[in-house]
């Protein structure tokens, strides 16, 4: 493993442990040249899931896009980075467990909304307003009323 600090191509593993979800191995390494330590993650390589966009185009699933969307909707809300990471991991697991090679962006959006609904209602409404492309105020109000009904 190449050192991110000095570029030396050899390091020794100091510690190895599985991550909480158990699908990834975390390794603490030390560069044999500069003695700085760094962390690497080892994950089972899977064939990429293709996302079918609204316009019919296909692109490889990108976890970072989901993270960025959730972070934007949770901006200035009491949602921690760990909660965002857990929500994204839940979505990723659902996609992997579906065993589909292709999934629509609509299905992913619904999964994100389900996670946000449990995480923070304001973040959910923010995401929904962009995702569902509310055309007018009434459709926005209808969505808010649905949230209130399900809560009671």
Structure report:
The protein has helices at 63-73, 81-97, 105-119, 121-131, 137-151; strands at residues 11-18, 24-31, 37-43, 50-52, 58-60, 102-104. It is α+β, with helices and mostly antiparallel strands. The protein folds into two domains: 11-43; 50-151. The strands form two sheets. Strands 1-2-3 form a three-stranded antiparallel sheet, with no helix packed on it. Strands 5-4-6 form a three-stranded mixed sheet. A hairpin with a 5-residue loop joins β1 and β2 (24-31). α1 (63-73) crosses α2 (81-97), α2 packs antiparallel against α3 and α3 packs antiparallel against α4. The chain is elongated. The relative contact order is 0.10. The mean pLDDT is 88.
Radius of gyration: 20 Å
* Sequence of secondary-structure elements: EEEEEHHEHHH
Total number of helical segments? 5
The largest sheet, given as strand count, sense and whether it forms a barrel, is:
3 strands, antiparallel
Number of strands: 6
Enumerate the strands of the largest sheet in spatial order, edge to edge or round the barrel: 1-2-3
- In what range is the share of β-strand residues? 15-25%
Point out poorly predicted stretches. Answer: none
Oligomer: single chain
Query: Judging from the principal axes of the Cα atoms, what is the shape?
Result: elongated
**Helix fraction?**
40-55%
| Separation of the first and last Cα atoms | 54 Å
The overall number of domains is: 2
Task: Name the structural class.
Answer: alpha+beta
Please tell me the overall pLDDT.
Answer: 88
């Amino acid at each position: 493993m190449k050192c991110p600090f000095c570029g030396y191509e050899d390091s020794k593993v100091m510690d190895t442990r599985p991550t909480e979800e158990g699908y990834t191995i975390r390794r603490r390494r030390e560069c044999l040249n500069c003695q700085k330590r760094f962390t690497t993650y080892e994950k089972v390589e899977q064939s990429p899931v293709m996302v079918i966009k609204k316009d019919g185009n296909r692109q490889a699933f990108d976890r970072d896009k989901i993270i960025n969307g959730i972070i934007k909707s949770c901006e200035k809300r009491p949602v921690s980075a760990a909660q965002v990471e857990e929500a994204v991991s839940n979505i990723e697991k659902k996609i992997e467990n579906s065993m589909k090679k292709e999934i629509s962006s609509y299905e992913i959006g619904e999964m994100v909304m389900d996670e946000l609904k449990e995480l923070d209602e304001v973040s959910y409404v923010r995401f929904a307003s962009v995702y569902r492309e509310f055309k007018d105020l009434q459709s926005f109000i209808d969505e808010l009323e649905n949230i209130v009904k399900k809560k009671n």
